[in-house]
Amino acid sequence: MRTFANLAEKELLALAISLEEEHGRIYADYADGLKDSYPASAKVFTEMAAEENEHRRTLIELYRQKFGEHIPLIRRQDVRGFLAHEPIWMVRPLGLDKVRAQAEVIEEETRRFYERALARTSDAGIRKLLGDLAAEREHTDLARRLGEEHLSPGTRQSEEETRRRVFVLQVVQPGLAGLMDGSVSTLAPLFAAAFATHSTWQTFLVGMAASVGAGISMGFAEALSDDGSLTGRGHPWLRGAITGGMTTLGGVGHTLPYLIADFRTATALAIAVVLVELWVIAWIRSRYMDTKFLRAAFEVVVGGLIVFAAGVLIGSA
């Protein structure tokens, strides 16, 4: 691997050509990945790709004038000091915030490269071109600059609404389903064990087993329900992990109080935790699922009370 300080002028130009070509292809991939959900932002990255291609052509023309037809292959991974960019352009669906953030990192890194290359060249023509390219990247937030031309307030609002729908579909819905299942379905076995044994440790073990088992079951059920390609619900295993994790969390929350040795104190605290869990579920449904809070609270509390009562009755039999 070469060091930046050891690169000759022709190698610096060759590396610049390679960088511009790579960035142009990355931005084109961004545009392709965003065109369905965020068409205005996709247009931003299409123009960014066109700019990178124009830079590449200008650099190639200067190289041919100075050093001839053969351009040596020097890539970013062949030179120490460059960042390793996560290949998010290969992921579908693309996240708009991550794409814009990575584009700005790429622009800032390229600006620093041109500034360092400028300091190591003496040829007037090369210095002029490198200086122009460095100056152009003083506005490292190129995505935002181009966005001012294409993203009207209405378009921005539309893309924000799309992003919110994607977040609800891929994160909130599976998480809420898991939290509801974990918080409600584990009430019956937990309180049945509590009132049957009056042993806080035995109740804790039953609650943990019910929570972990429900989490594994719900996680696999969600992951295997669909692959997300048609529904837009995201990667199945990520969705399953969210659902399984929230299911386990929902059950563990009211199980932990039974680590307290005193049965009455532990049960009172567990009931209080259940009420908090049900309130959180109602708030999430109200916040993200367009359900009025009182209606959401009524539905969740009624369901929780029925399961709680079933557990107490079975445990007291």
Number of domains: 2
Count all strands and give the number.
0
**Structural class determined from secondary elements:** mainly alpha
Characterize the largest beta sheet: strand count, sense, and whether it forms a barrel: none
- Report helical residue fraction: over 70%
Mind telling me the C-alpha Rg?
29 Å
Outline the low-pLDDT stretches. none
Helical segment tally?
Answer: 11
Shape: elongated
Query: What percentage of the residues does DSSP assign to strands (E)?
Result: under 5%
Helix and strand element order:
HHHHHHHHHHH
Task: Describe this structure as you would to a colleague.
By secondary structure, this protein is mainly α. It folds into two domains: about 5-150, Ferritin, core subunit, four-helix bundle (Ferritin, Up-down Bundle), CATH 1.20.1260.10; about 155-315, no CATH class. Helices cover about 75% and strands about 0% of the residues. The chain has eleven helices and no strands. The mean pLDDT is about 85.
